[in-house]
Amino acid sequence: MTALRAPRPRGGLDRKIARKGWLFILPAVLLILALSFYPMVEAFLLSLQKGSGNQLTYGGLSNYQRLPKDNTYVTALGNTFFYLIVQVPVMLALALILAVMLNDSKLMGRGIYRTLIFLPCATSLVSCSMIFLQLFSNNGLLNSLFLRWGWVSEPIPFLTNAVYARLVIVITMLWRWTGYNMVFYLAGLQNIDHQIYEAARIDGASAIQQFTKITVPLLRPIILFTTVLSTNGTLQLFDEVRIMTAGGPGIGTATLSWHIYRTTFESVPRFGYAAAMAFTIFLMVAALAFIQMKVGERK
Amino acid sequence: MKKLLALLLVTVLLLSAASALAQTKLTVWCWDPAFNIYAMEEAKKVYALINPDVEIEVIETLSVDCETKQTAALSSGQTDTLPDIVLMQDNSGRRFLDTFPGAYFPMDGLVDYDNFATYKIDKFTSDGKRYAVPFDNGVAATFVRTDYLEAAGFTLNDLTDITWDRFIEIGQKVKEATGQFMLVTQAGYADFVSMITQSADFWFFDEDGRPNINTNPAVRAMVEVIVKLHESGIVKEAVDWSEYIASFNNGSAGSTIQGCWIIGSIVLAEDQAGKWGVTNIPRLDIESGTNYSSQGGSSWVVPASSKNPEAAVDFLSKTFGASVEFYQTILQSSGAIATYLPAAAGPAYSEPHPFFNGQKVFEDLMSYSAHVPLVKYGVYNYEARDEIVIAIEAIFNGTSIDDALNSAQSAIEFIME
Amino acid sequence: MTRKLRLKPLRVLKHLFLIAVSFLSAFPFYWMLSSATNDTADIILGRILPGSHLLVNWANLTGAGKIGTAFFNSVRNAVVLTFLSLFISSMAGYGFVIFRDKWKNKVMGVLMLSMMIPPAATLIPMFRMFSQLGLINTLAGFMLPSIATVFLIFMFRQATQSFPYEIVQAARIDGLGEFNIFLRMFVPIMRPTYAAAAIVTFMNAWNSYLWPLVILQSPDQLTLPIYAGSFRGGYVLDYGLIMLVVTISTIPMLVIFFTLQRSFVVGILGSVK
Asked: How far away is chain C from the Cα of B243, in angstroms, using its nearest Cα?
């Protein structure tokens, strides 16, 4: 709390200034209303229509009723939650641990470590997917090395075995995003007063106790923020799946966004149905964010 | 001053007249530099002699991307991003024609349809009108490294007119003798799903267009064969297309069973010249099983949004639709076998092919064409195929064949609702 | 200065762990760079060391003719979008705090909801909308959905909350108009936040894939990610070339990161308080 916050407007002059403030936010608000909310409303209206291509007729909630019967949707849902449950906690935990380690000003080479670990964020998802595709494919680097060293006699089907493929995607995401979250945590850690740790150390608290009783609680808002952001991102996972596995093998790595894209652009286009699927993602993201925020507040 | 103005006026008039005479520009979207793009470039050369005022630009676009962009443009009504000519997989023809009526330019009366193979024209006929200039013949064959066969004590004949079980036996001996995989295909076996089903004169739909995945004997037999292939250890399952092509180019696989358009990619490995042979495909061990099928094949369509549809059709009809020499030219290097019947009778078709050890591959392929079972493609071809691929993956992981096929059946019924 | 280096086992473990993680983070980059200098055959055999094939790969790439356009378009799109986005979003973030009232807070809450909309769903409605407005295949069409993002507004809002309000008050007393206050007082002081925001925005614009794939249709609008992505499962088996394209797509971001990463961290710091 270092800065004086803008007070609530009182009196005529304040009100006038507050009104001018609207001009500041208006362009952004209008853009978001027009380009996020309006299409979302359109998408909802679209989700109430059934049919293919441009031959759409009103179908009420029939699209939503179809969802549980759609095997691909259910599988994609399962996969998406798999990614969520496996990747997000591991990534955030790793990011947190790394941030705590790098927060030590006496650590040699911390600048270099930080830079290197943050580096993956410079890649586009496309580039990163292409690189990892090449690393893990049957004639990729890993298999070439394993074969050369005699660890295996045939290439490991990293991308054509459903379980491995899912893990490869998780690894790709971990590589790409851990550094990003680490930076957020580092920033948050720098805000925590050294003296709190000093006091705790004097009191005999171990490193682990300091971590769980001081660091984590104080970082709670940031942890919450990164959790919501990561959940959001993972629920909408698309690029890696499209480039690395095309949803495969079969639909083993398929995600909801991928299924939506396919239904809209690659199969017989069913815009209404795809919109309905997307709307369920929206509801899930909103619900999860809500839950996460409530949990974050209560503790 | 007046003279200057007059001069300017004349210049402007001349320039605008010149630009009116100037070139019509056509854009073409297609994929595969070794095959379709190569063919298009050759077609351009042929047409330049007929009508030099037309400028044609070929933009390499992956098949999936072509379809995605067309879907996006047609569904939003924003079509001026579409090209004048686009290559389309035969399997997708009905899908686009039926989903977006009026989106493509009908070609009746403008193209010499009498001289094209009927089965190709059918794929792009909707509501009695015809919408495409057929291109390549997708007849399937077994393309095999004869040197690998020899190493295991076999000849090309041993691979002719056989069943899949026999193919697997031979494949295992080849693997023992050479250490290489006998066969490569893309993981998931999507290509085989369509090709093998068709080889037994069945498709995924019955006469009335209703899916019959769990009741038709060919699908069941095909699935069983694929499971055997997967478990036999003789098949290299490539992660993606590039790995697939790389596998026969670098010798890590001894054969590929595919549409004949794969020749364009096989001959890229110059060091393997003389070591390849072609024969027909293995058959399913059921009553209707044959050793012939087709896989892929595409045709040229003209979106209705084109600004020069007549010019586009004229270009196509005078090259792909009429020029016998054109088809001779492109034959050897790409393997693009015409479905334009007069061309198929041309001289290049009976030439021995050096890459294939002097075998008259095109004669052979044309003779296979005559035996390809004709099945009726529907609108949901890819969806049905994909559901079967999903079923097969489940079977690999332990699901029973019955359960998996029933699942696929209800899934495709669901999609078609 | 002589200081005994005490090799505590814990410290050693820490370093080993960090070295391992750093290595894993950096290795794919190294491999990408070295593959760009190798030819396909070597790459398939698992070669890790750089080779002498860079010029050949480069020649093949420029021979294909698209890399120049793709690069130029990516730069242009990213730069213009970054400027516009920073301007409009920072103005909004500033406005939400300096002029806060309960209505504006409500509006902010509503805006947060928009973060949860999956892009694949609004793709078609947006595409339709843009085509009616004639914005397909234009820079404006590419930029509009990303100019105002809740993330940036949020970031600037957080940063503004640590901006000393006294400065604003003093400036008002001095007779400065609100917009002038923003431009002359806020922007210069908040430079680290702007730097961080610039990096994030530029990065997102540069790496953007799905939206450009749909809205930028003609080849003269090609961007680097679309070009790089067009090699997926495609017919070009030239892995060296593919890695070269990926390298070219990545190097600008790497350069920006290396030079501005300090500002980035400071900027995030400011918005995280």
From this structure: 8
